[in-house]
Design goal:
The complex is a heterodimer of chains A (310) and B (366). Chain A is mainly alpha-helical. In chain A, 72% of the residues lie in helices and 0% in strands. The N and C termini of chain A lie far apart (68 Å). Chain A: It is found in: Cell membrane.
Chain lengths: 310, 366
């Protein structure tokens, strides 16, 4: 086997791992936006999920408990957003920004005692024979549970949105909240549940970063991934399957950036670090320029305030 | 659900517009009290160290003005954009670019400067910030790409660019590989305004920006267009207002002001280029803009309050060993409380079921 091919296996595996937090966060936000709510606080929820997950995993010694705690913390942050935007009718853009700013501060505060603490690695799947396959073995059969969970979430979210009655109601609320309300659906309750789900998914994404991907706690560990996840939802034109495509694309860019130097191409590392962010901008531009397509796919009530009496 | 109800007011309450920021500050202080107590600190002592002690000396007051300067400069520009529903959240990156371009001149003409260098740096700083903001403006106008996401992404790009420069071209040749530049020479540093403090010319620029921002919004046709576009885009369309022009204008303006803020930092209190120019001024400026009600005078007051949270955080860290991250928590909480209490501007809070007033029967049935 040639050297290039030997390198391909680990790259593929790393790409899938790098895509995982984006997948969690973007799928969660997709459901939120499908219900007509724009939560720009993904980055903040991710950070709080990351630090809470890490703290609980260190205290209990169980990474499973850590992931659950991360999801719970993300949902807790999302509940704050839900109360403000859905019950107190605050501007969703401003509240989402507030959630991120608050999350950055809160996670740094909670995490100050956890910087530099090592944590046990999350065990990876090993199937004799399959995992040892060349090139694809490690990527397909040698990941940890969260990677598979994130992949499973793609068809699950698609099935929920497009094949269940509850999913249909959620989409109806996102398209036209006044009509859904007139039909007797509990717009605020449905949106609140969607927001909580989005928060839990962002929290999971954060916990994956601190428990598994990095694995350690550092201030600002998410490094803009929450924002990239938001861009992914637009890139995917609100379709779960395309989120997967986008997450792999960004996972690929992230990993490529790490490997370019290994291949002997001489570009300063700081400039290479810009790549994922520049790729996000480019991808957004490519998708957004088709105004008709965005208008056709974006939930019609996205970001609009709903008050039953108004 | 029926215990607490929101009833729309006939029209927005003027009183509440002014009252809710104060209410939000009060709620933040109350939460801070509980937070300090929960963390095992004496809450009265901690709040004193945080919010009062820094104000008791001339040096402290000076630092307040120094920290408020970049916040006000950035927030004035952001608020004008927010009024037009142009969500520039890239002030941090635009500030960084202003420092890179303006500060770069100071390094390029090191040892051969003159009276002309500082004005040139100021122009370059503003141009750098405006240029960085021009990217999201172009992408929004030409390709319909959300300026929220593009401007935010460019913050990270700017930070990496600065990092690259500090490890390469901008690094002090005699600096033992530390990622810091040479100290700027005297003709590349903003003059001080008050002896015994670090208050510099940039603070004057911030005051000018407040006045100019007020004039633009309250007294010009452009300001009127900005407000109409923000409130009812359709009406603005019928009136023939050019929305693209307003997107360009608000982004370039806020970029230039943020760039000026960045230049003011490196040519002011920092006095050189380093990789950590801003402790998040560009992000905090978003809070300043909202807390100041998107109004220039309000922003000036809010800028001082947020500056206090920065220096209070540092002071409390030194005096009591409070973690520095508290500053960010306070800032986030303040914005939350403001957004939560803002509901009072357009709604009354009513207790009890709908139509329950004076009708015991209705309540019993519900």
């Amino acid at each position: 086997m040639s050297a290039e091919l030997a390198l391909l296996g680990p790259i593929l595996a790393a790409m899938l791992a790098a895509a995982t937090p984006l997948l969690f966060a973007a799928l969660g936000e997709l459901v939120v936006e499908k219900s007509g709510v724009l939560n720009l606080g993904v980055e903040g929820m991710m950070l709080v999920g990351a630090v809470c997950g890490f703290a609980v995993a260190v205290q209990t010694g169980s990474s499973t408990a850590g992931f659950v705690a991360g999801a719970a913390a993300g949902a807790g942050m999302a509940a704050l957003f839900g109360v403000l935007t859905l019950l107190l009718l605050a501007n969703q853009v401003a509240t989402g920004l507030a959630l991120t700013l608050f999350g950055v501060g809160l996670s740094a505060l909670i995490g100050q005692g956890f910087v530099g603490i090592p944590i046990a690695d999350v065990p990876e799947l090993y199937i004799p024979g399959l995992t040892d396959l060349p090139v694809i073995g490690k990527a397909l059969f040698g990941q940890d549970a969260l990677v598979y969970l994130a992949l499973a979430a793609v068809p699950a979210v698609h099935w929920f949105l497009y094949a269940t009655r509850k999913g249909l109601i959620l989409r109806a609320v996102g398209e036209n909240h006044a009509a859904a309300h007139a039909l007797g659906y509990k717009v605020i309750r449905i949106r609140f549940l969607a927001v909580l789900f989005g928060g839990a998914m962002s929290g999971m994404a954060g916990a994956y970063l601190s428990l598994d991907y990095t694995p350690m706690w550092a201030e600002g560990i998410s490094a803009g991934r929450g924002w990239i996840a938001l861009a992914l939802v637009v890139f995917a034109t609100w379709k779960p399957g395309r989120v997967l495509l986008g997450a792999w694309l960004f996972g690929g860019v992230t990993i490529a950036q790490l490997h370019v130097q290994g291949l002997g191409i001489d570009i300063p590392s700081q400039l290479l670090s810009m790549l994922p962010y520049l790729a996000t901008v480019i991808v957004l531009v490519v998708i957004s320029r088709d105004v008709a397509r965005i208008r056709l796919n974006a939930p019609a009530s996205l970001g609009k305030v709903f008050h039953p009496d108004a | 659900m029926t215990l607490l109800r929101l009833e729309p007011r006939g029209e927005a309450s003027r009183a509440m517009v002014y009252a809710t920021p104060l209410l939000a500050v009060a709620l933040t202080l109350a939460s801070g009290f509980l937070l300090f107590w929960a963390m095992g600190f004496d809450p009265v002592k901690a709040l004193h160290a945080f919010f009062i002690a820094p104000l008791l000396s001339l040096r402290g007051l000076g630092e307040l003005a120094v920290k408020a300067t970049p916040l006000v400069l950035c927030a004035i520009g952001l608020a004008i954009g927010f009024r037009a529903n142009v969500w520039n959240i890239g002030a941090e990156g635009q500030l960084t670019l202003g420092a890179i371009t303006g500060g770069g001149l100071a390094l390029a003409f090191y040892g051969e400067g003159g009276w002309w260098l500082l004005p040139l740096m100021i122009v370059a700083g503003m141009a750098g910030g405006a240029l960085w903001a021009a990217i999201p403006a172009f992408l929004r106008v030409r390709f319909n790409a959300s300026e929220i996401l593009t401007s935010l992404m460019l913050n990270y790009v700017a930070l990496h660019l600065l990092n690259y420069l500090m490890h390469g071209p901008y690094r002090d040749p005699d600096g033992f590989a530390f990622p810091e530049s040479r100290l700027f020479e005297a003709d590349a540093v903003l003059p001080l305004l008050v002896a015994g403090t670090r208050v510099h010319l940039g603070s004057l620029f911030a005051l000018l920006a407040v006045a100019a921002g007020w004039f633009l919004m309250a007294r010009t046709f452009i300001g009127f267009q900005i407000k109409v576009i923000g409130l009812t885009p359709t009406a603005a369309g019928y009136a023939g207002f050019n929305q693209k022009k307003i997107i360009w204008l608000t982004l370039l303006l806020s970029g230039a002001l943020a760039g000026l803020a960045g230049l003011g930092e490196v040519a002011g209190p920092i006095g050189q280029m380093n990789p950590t120019i801003s402790p998040g001024y560009g992000y905090t400026a978003i809070i300043v803009a909202f807390l100041g009600r998107l109004h220039p005078v309000g922003i000036l007051l809010a800028g001082f309050l947020m500056a206090l949270s920065f220096i209070g955080g540092e002071a409390a860290q030194i005096a009591l060993g409070l973690p520095k991250a508290i500053t960010g928590v306070f800032q986030g909480m303040l914005l939350f409380f403001l957004l939560a209490t803002d509901v009072l501007i357009r709604y009354r809070v009513r207790f009890g079921a709908k139509g329950a007033a004076g009708s015991g029967v209705g309540r019993a049935a519900a």
